[in-house]
Amino acid sequence: MPFLEFIAGSISGAVGLAVGHPLDTVKVRLQAQSVYKGIFHCMAKTYSNEGVFITAPVDLVKVRLQGQTTADRYRGPIHCVAVILKKEGPRGLFRGGLALALRDIPCYGLYFLPYEVTRKALTESGKEPGTLAILMAGGVAGVVTWAFATPMDVVKARLQMSGAGGREYRGVLHCMRASFREEGVRVFFKGLLLNSLRAFPVNAVTFLSYESLMRIFCPPMR
């Protein structure tokens, strides 16, 4: 049973990432850089300069690759890792790790609460949740979670980009103070709209894929 849950979770997670990756790239660029006027300007500039979006397996490498506007610095994930190790050492690969933990630990705790509440609210008593209930519950869970995660997500993106030509920060608190001083409280909600637009379909598909796979792997006893 745990192994089947692992397989179902892995597949559904991959499906969700595939759905959300293009908007994730735009979100990173809006948070880490100030050269874009808004969502559509960022999307237009990215597509006109680079075509279809890139992908990377590690969060730091993903952010570095998403954040660059040309291929002059990094030619791909492996080259990105090599450059980071050469210029920053092994510690460079963990840049922004504390901010990532501060973002993810409380948000993963929150993640399943709105899902369960919404799913139960949309399901008749004694019946299995339908496709619409799962999709809506997954979407709501994603939006609620990212609403709480966005401020620290901004800090994480800025710390991760600070070793790649971006503004240098000494740590999480310095990044928060400097960002607030220079841009005001609004800076911590950069990318919130994109996070929400991305989170709803990504998590709706993720939960639907997981629930569907578990029903296939473990059909209910009749």
UniProtKB/TrEMBL annotation:
Q: Which InterPro entries match?
A: MCP_dom_sf, MCP_transmembrane, Mitochondrial_Carrier
GO cellular component terms, alphabetically, are:
mitochondrial membrane
Question: By its UniProt entry, which SUPFAM superfamilies does this protein fall under?
Answer: Mitochondrial carrier (SSF103506)
* GO molecular function annotation: transmembrane transporter activity
Look up and give the membrane topology term.
Multi-pass membrane protein
What are the start and end residues of each Solcar repeat? 32-121, 129-216
Q: Which UniProt keywords apply?
A: Membrane, Mitochondrion, Repeat, Transmembrane, Transmembrane helix, Transport
Subcellular localization is given as: Mitochondrion membrane
Pfam families given for it?
A: Mito_carr (PF00153)
Family, according to the entry, reads as follows: Belongs to the mitochondrial carrier (TC 2.A.29) family.
Please identify the protein, giving its name as recorded.
Solute carrier family 25 member 45
Q: Which organism is it from?
A: Sander lucioperca
